[in-house]
Amino acid sequence: MNETELLEIVCYIGKKLTRYGAEVYRVEESVSRICAAYGYTSAEVYAIPSNIVVTVYKKDRSPLTQSVRINTRLTNLDRVGEYNRLCRRICREKPDFAKIKKEISKIENRPVYGTGMQFASFLLVGFSFVFFFGGDLKSALLGAAAAGIIFFLTYIMTKADLSAFLINVTCSAAAALFAIGMYKLKLIDSYDTVVISALMTMVPGVSITNGMRDFISGDLMAGIYTIAEAFTAAVAMAVGAGSVIALFR
Q1: Which strands form 44-48's sheet, in the order they lie side by side?
Q2: Cα separation of 199 and 237, whole Å?
Q3: What is the dihedral of CA 100, 105, 110, 111, to 10 degrees?
Q4: CA-CA distance, 13 to 82, in Å (whole number)?
Q5: CA torsion angle for 111, 115, 120, 123 (degrees, to 10)?
Q6: In which band, very low, low, confident or very high, does the pLDDT at 208 lie, cut at 50, 70 and 90?
Q7: Which pTM was predicted?
């Protein structure tokens, strides 16, 4: 495998690991190990959640660099695990470029949870967290309904390629408006538990966890980026729900 093919492979794998929710230190270590497996022990790797830069040195010591931009991120820990296994296999077997591309294609074509299963998961989260926050069965059913509203709005707005901040503001506002409406109709005694439980479906848990792990491992720039991203999501949720509660409670 030549330098150009190697850079294409490692940048693609690094991009996918980052996009699917892997920590930055894991991305840098995986890319470095693949480069070392093919003899490029002095490869330089720099990754943050929005960009990866990889430099390898040819036999004449001239550098060859490639960078990739990560525009969107989502959570798919199954594919993170599969890419981790692929990285280990590459380091162990050192397959050629075509075989690695074939394995990558298999990973990208792995099935994901369908819309129905995702919707059911939202309903379950909205339903169960009501009891955690001290609500009753009636509030739990409405919490599930509010979470369902969040799911459909997120699905539609994501398809329209709207910003994450706008999606979070709109979804949290819709959930709060629904809960207050049910409270005004005297179907529940308090709207607080319904709102909070529905918003639990939007909490950026993976981003918060990865940000803290990046801080602990010494990747301060990546940690700041990830924590800031999680903080922005929290602010958007507070703005959406808080505005509705202030206006209509």
Answers
A1: 44-48, 51-57, 63-69
A2: 8
A3: 170
A4: 11
A5: 130
A6: confident
A7: 0.83
